[in-house]
Each structure stands twice: as C-alpha cells, then as structure tokens.
Polyamine aminopropyltransferase
Amino acid sequence: MDLWFTEKHTDNVKLSIKVDRQVYSAQSEFQRIDIFDSLEFGRFLTLDGYMMLTEKDEFIYHEMIVHVPMAVLPQVKKVLVIGGGDGGAVRELVRYPEIQQIDLVEIDAQVIEACKKYLPQTAAKLDDPRVIIHEADGLKFVRSKKDEYDLIIVDSTDPFGPGEGLFTKEFYGNCFKALTATGAMVNQHESPFYPVDAIAMQRAHKRIVDSFPISRVYQAHIPTYPSGHWLFGFASKHGHPLQDFDAQKWKARNLKTRYYNDKIHVGAFALPNYVKRMLEEME
Amino acid sequence: MDLWFTEKHTDNVKLSIKVDRQVYSAQSEFQRIDIFDSLEFGRFLTLDGYMMLTEKDEFIYHEMIVHVPMAVLPQVKKVLVIGGGDGGAVRELVRYPEIQQIDLVEIDAQVIEACKKYLPQTAAKLDDPRVIIHEADGLKFVRSKKDEYDLIIVDSTDPFGPGEGLFTKEFYGNCFKALTATGAMVNQHESPFYPVDAIAMQRAHKRIVDSFPISRVYQAHIPTYPSGHWLFGFASKHGHPLQDFDAQKWKARNLKTRYYNDKIHVGAFALPNYVKRMLEEME
C-alpha cells in the first residue's frame, strides 16, 4: 500500500504524509472532514484537506494555546472556546480546578462527533460536566455576550472558509466586550513564513491591535503546520503576558506538560526580527 | 513545467519544492552536489539529495550558528569553521572586526567552487583577506591543533556520509583541545522531532556532554529543514551561553540581523519539555 496525504502549503511547497488507511470521511454542511491513520504521526484530522491535528504533535498546539494565558490570568472561572471541536483545548482547560464553566462553540457538530469517535486522545474531556457544547457560529454567539468570560480561546481554522469570520474586526471587538475586566483572548495566529499566510496574519494582527490595548504574539514549533513556525496572539484589557506571568505559581500547580514550561513561556514571546518587523509595520 | 524536488524527511514524510530549473549538478569525490532555482525559496543547494540551504531562509541558520556564540565569548580573534563551504557562516563572522583569522576547513572543494559561482548570497565573503580556506577533512585537521581557536563552528552535513566523523567522540575531544581557555564550540545539532533524527542527535549530544564541562542546546525555526525545529549545540570550557551573555554589548555592536536578537538569544535556550527529557535522559 502506497497511499499519501499531500497538503499544499503554498502553490510551490507540499508536505506529504504516508497514510496507512483512511478511517473517516464526510462532507458536513460546512466542510469536508477526513481522518487518517499514519505511521509517523498516528491518527490525524484534516478539514477541507488542511491539516488540523495529528496525535503526535497536537500537544504542542493545545498546550501553547491554553497554558500561556492560564499562567498569566489571575483567576479564570469561565472560558469560551470558539472552534476547537476536536476537544484538545478543552482537554487542557479541564486540568484547572478553578475553571467552573467552559462554553465550547463549534459551528460543525459533525467535527465533534467524528473526533469523539475517532480521536479520543483529544476529545476525551468533552464530556466533563463543566463543558457546555454550543453548536453555533462563534461570530454570532459572541455578539450578545458582555463582561462574561475570563478567557476566550479562538481555536479556529484558517482565515478562509468557515473560519473566516473569526478574523474580522467585528469579531475581535465583540470578544473584547465579552471579556471580564481582567480577561484575555488568545487566538491561533497563522504563520509568518510563507507570504500567502503572512499577509492574512498581518491583517488579522492589525485588527487585534486596534481592538485591544495589549496585544502580543508568541510562537511554537509545530512540525505538521506550514513551515513549522506557528504564531499565537495574546490580547487583553490590561494583563500583560510577560509582566503578569508568575513562574512560581505555574510551577506550584505541578501540571505535567510535554512542551510548555516556564522558560518556554518567556522564550515564546521572543520573536525573530523578521517577524517583529512584519508585526510592527502594521502597528 | 512541473518539476519538483522532493526530500524524504523520514520514510513516511516528504517535503516537495517546485523547481523552476536546475542550475548545477555534479558528482564530486565525496557527494552529489545540486543547485536549483525555485519560486518559493529562491536558489537552493542540496548535497546527496538533502537540503543544505535556500536563499530564503539560510539567514536563520547562519545567524544562529554565529551570533549566539559571538554574543557570549569575551574576545574572539581566531575562528575555525568546519564544513560550511557555502560561506554562510563566514559571511556572518567577517562582520566582527575583532576576528583576525578564520580557518575554513571544507573537505569538498567542489562545494566551495559551486557556491562561489551560483550562490553569491552566501559565498560572497569567502574572499575576505582574513579567511584561509583549507581543503581538508575537519576530523584530521583539528587533531594537530592545541589551544588555538577562540571559537569552533561545526557547520556539518548530517551524521552519515562525509559528515559522519564530525559527530564522533574523538572529534569533540580534539575540538576541546584545539580551543583556547575561554573558547567554545557550536555545532548544528539536528532535530528532535522525528525519531530517526532524534536518535542520532541524542547520541551526538551525549558525546559533547562527555567532552565539555558546559554544554547547552538551543533551537531555531528553520522551515526548510526536517520538522522546521532545528537544534544547535553550544559547548565550552567555562563560558556559559546565558550567564555570560551581554545583551548590551550585543546591541552596542549595531549589527543588523533578520532573525537573531537579544531576546531570541535567551529564548532559543528555552527548550520544550519533550526535548529536555531527550537530552537529560542521555546525561
């Protein structure tokens, strides 16, 4: 058997992964959903042919999108996760006993169902009693919310297709409004390396900068995403991701992690000059 | 024209780059040398079919292998570069006026000739009067050296083929001997992500740890290398890459860089837990 999944990272770059077998395929109302087994990465999920997660490296993305804000914010009781139907962000969030409620807003219920059945590694905690699943458009869901969430995690797909609305100025403004006074929003921020991604990244970044007084970008090594150099955005009303980071408090929690640690927290905000220029040019 | 260069990162993962045309191809005494033009990465060099550098992202590798040690060491007058026939490391080194001599030891003179002709972006400074090119095996060259170099940069190929000797205990021991009392060795340290690379990386790391009292690993985002998560090793007799790093001194130099900066210097040494475990397990 010689079966390969190939993703075009640009028109001129492709990453191919040897597939053992396809375990799921469906066309939902919103997108094409596929799940494969591979030797190198274990099971992996694609949406419209774009890599969402692999069992081998999803811990990097999910730890970095959750533990960075959790180690900064003073007291997180109520969290909103937009997208993230795979359950990976929720899995990391439920490790915090102080969190009382997690609203997961996923537009595509079929993603949740598929992940529950075929990706138990990420979806395992979607049944936690603190998790409320809303089958809804995140863009619309957040419009009616005010001063309600201590943390909003925007675990979206790319800025085209179903996830497009989650990169708009209207959306960021509504997230700001939906946050409590000490709240923060974290989003997946695309990659700086390939111009086709970087242009969308810069545009979204400018909108976040315009919507929040504090906005910083951090990075992680995610080998199965285009270029392997992935960015996240941290935006808040007044909490600063470095000045308000308490390494001792994080360590005292004794949470076992495979990527994140207190040194990584600080190091992740140290961006290469070429990325800084991209972000500052837009400010 | 639909021409693609494909590199297998493992048996189960391939990265493919669209090629406009091949501009050079030769079989030297040591290896197959190829140079291509591409739309996405500009011109790029492969040895035995493995990506060595692209015009688009070589600055990341060369800045990180040179400026990290240069920002730590007190006074660097004499440098040994082993491998690095493309000239990228030399290009960054000649920016330091205090460096008086750079011995470049490249086993394959044909690599130097090809890069001088086809990759002027990296090879431009190989004619600097401080540079002495030795067409020799680095493993043998360093055997006779004692207390001579303030910095040794091991800019090798992978730990198989012509570069294999540059990952041996004998070689690291000889580098230690060849360094001055304040000297340090920096090497390209492979990637931690794919097991096939990580095993070689761990083995080499253990040998460096056994040969030097101080040994630390740092990382960079290099999109065209396997996984994009690339490691470097810093090993010294007593200089510490963080405690002896002087950010003010670096900034005062006013060297323009596209990746490296003082925050990156510190952040690059913040390794993910999964990488730390790999390195500590071997210590």
